[in-house]
């Protein structure tokens, strides 16, 4: 007896395979990882500031002017004189720690493929097609992501004042571009600006390719 041929399946979900964009991690989860990293960054920056306070840190003319501007800004908030006296010795160490800290912290991501915050949420960085990313690619992504801190580090070296101010202005523009670029992860491709440039994306560790 011949079997009656069956019509094609009309189940719209039967043969669906998620696209690579579906398997990438979007803005919300990445924001959660960033908030965890922000806590981790402060836990690194504060000890660094304490260490830097015991060191004879170099001060360029640009740094002195920047510290003076910071001091005047604090005075405008009407802080008590006694509190200002306690804050002033911490300003230079905190300035250095605020530049060096992010570079050291995000270096963990560059060398391991995931920041501590990403690891806690079981995320990792890979190529945009899901393949494992070479260390050089992840390092390039990290350099793009931290380019603002890199420029600020260059600005505190003993260079001409006009050069230092130009570098700092460039750092501010880069910082704005990186922050705005993070919102690109809200798009269907789920890639921030530094991902687009480095051809990377963030995935969950349970994803297999």
Q: Would you count the extended β strands for me?
A: 2
Mean pLDDT: 86
Main sheet: which strands, in order across?
Answer: 1-2
- Helical amount: 55-70%
User: What structural category arises from helix and sheet content?
Assistant: mainly alpha
Major sheet summary line: 2 strands, antiparallel
Tally of alpha and pi helices: 9
Low-confidence stretches: none
Spatial extent as radius of gyration:
24 Å
Q: Give the overall shape.
A: elongated
Oligomer: single chain
How many angstroms does the end-to-end distance come to?
A: 44 Å
H-E order: HHHHHEHHHHE
Strand content: under 5%
Number of domains: 1
Topology:
Elements lengths: L19 H4 L3 H27 L7 H16 L4 H32 L3 H5 L2 E5 L7 H11 L1 H9 L5 H22 L10 H6 L1 E5 L5
Antiparallel strand pairs: 1-2
Helix pairs in contact: 2-4, 3-4, 4-6, 4-7, 7-8
What does this structure look like?
With 209 residues, this protein is mainly alpha-helical. It has one domain. The chain is built from nine helices and two strands; from the N terminus they run αααααβααααβ. It has a two-stranded antiparallel ribbon with strand order 1-2. Helix 2 (27-53) packs across helix 4 and helix 4 packs antiparallel against helix 6 (135-145). The relative contact order is 0.15.
